[in-house]
Write a structure and sequence with these properties.
2 copies of one chain form a homodimer.
Chain A lengths: L2 H7 L6 H8 L3 E5 L4 E3 L8 E6 L2 E6 L5 E7 L4 E2 L2 H6 L6 E4 L3 E6 L1 H10 L1 H27 L2 H11 L1 H6 L2 H8 L3 H5 L4
Antiparallel strand pairs in A: 1-8, 2-7, 3-6, 3-8, 4-5, 4-7
Chain B binds a DNA duplex (30 and 30 nucleotides) through helix 9.
DNA sequence: CGCGCGATTGAGTAATTTCAAATCTAGTGG
DNA sequence: CCACTAGATTTGAAATTACTCAATCGCGCG
């Protein structure tokens, strides 16, 4: 309960009234492991805030191979942002790796929320900025480090991932085959 | 003159007074081809808006190899965002590929500007969001496409790059050696 | 003309992928 | 407790791909 409030208050304090108004813009949903929140080709009506559980944002290429753009764990915001903001079709899918509870907000409500609470615009700006920075770091690691280095950096940064997802999934995130990943620490 | 105004007005209209106040937060600077706006290890006092010219955001890895995170052309905002927002040392460098004119804004002024014009917060939110989306697309192409595919996508998206930068630079952006790039379309 | 820089080509080497087979592990039902 | 199964992981070997290093080519400029 109130993970969203705790999350927002990491950046700015809220009164009870403010929070309950903000909270009113969101819909709570639960999904089972393996369920899709977004499927490639769908419309993308929501951005999701992960209350509990674990998601993966994936892209299935022409040859059917699955690539993982990111894992979204507790307190993360995730969606196919391009499709969400442009109201287009998803090029990626968002799928549960565990039973997951999320808070959903639609594009209209997102704009209304920002209009009603300018400080939320500030909040989302911080989130977007740190998301952009994180993506840049990822590009940097893809360009500048070997898969083996990326593997140990990932485990250092998110030790819990090792427990929560299979190595095939980690390989799909790192951009190597599972066989190659398996040969790293032998 | 007034590239900044035209750029902001793509997203929201401004009165003359508003623009001249906003403009007052920025400092104009010019750099010669080859000059550094940021060097790895430096403090990063500014975010830069490219008025004219071309920059590259690069990372020099331990082995001395140069990786290009992005090219920043006219109308782009660029800096080492992590270092800028956290007031730390740059892990990347920002270097001119052509004579370049930029508008600079410091972190304090950035906050003051957003405080004085909440609509600028909205503006920067849109920029940060589209930056995040662009980075995600790039990750997707690094994971899902071969260097050869990335090469043709890049040229389709930014045909002018072919005229403006050497193939060695494109190779450093795509993440392959220049020899490999050279063997693609032969 | 000759220099310098970028681009190309060639050959050998290293790394990764692919496909196939073997092994391991957790959960199930007898 | 054991056998069995499905899924994940590991291993092996051949084939592919990209890299490195070196040499060559092409072109603009003093």
């Amino acid at each position: 309960m109130d993970e969203l409030r705790r999350h927002i208050e990491e950046i700015m304090p809220l009164t009870d009234l403010e929070f309950s108004t903000i909270n009113g813009f969101f819909i709570s949903k639960s999904y089972k492991k393996g369920a899709y929140l977004i499927q490639q080709g769908d419309r993308v009506p929501f951005t999701f805030f992960v209350v509990s559980g674990l998601l993966k944002l994936i892209y299935n290429d022409a040859s059917g191979k699955e690539h993982i753009l990111s894992f979204a764990m507790e307190d993360w915001w995730e969606t196919d942002y391009y499709a969400f903001y442009h109201e287009g079709r998803a090029t990626m899918s968002l799928k549960c790796l565990e039973d997951t509870q999320v808070l959903c907000i639609g594009l209209e409500d997102y704009h209304r929320l920002c209009a009603a609470f300018p400080r939320m615009e500030h909040f989302f700006l911080q989130k977007a900025t740190s998301g952009h920075i994180a993506s840049q770091q990822r590009i940097l690691s893809l360009l500048g480090s070997s898969a083996e280095e990326r593997y140990s950096m990932l485990l250092k940064r998110y030790p819990s991932l090792m427990q929560r997802v299979s190595k095939s999934q980690l390989a799909a995130y790192l951009g190597v085959s599972r066989e190659t990943l398996s040969r790293f620490y032998s």
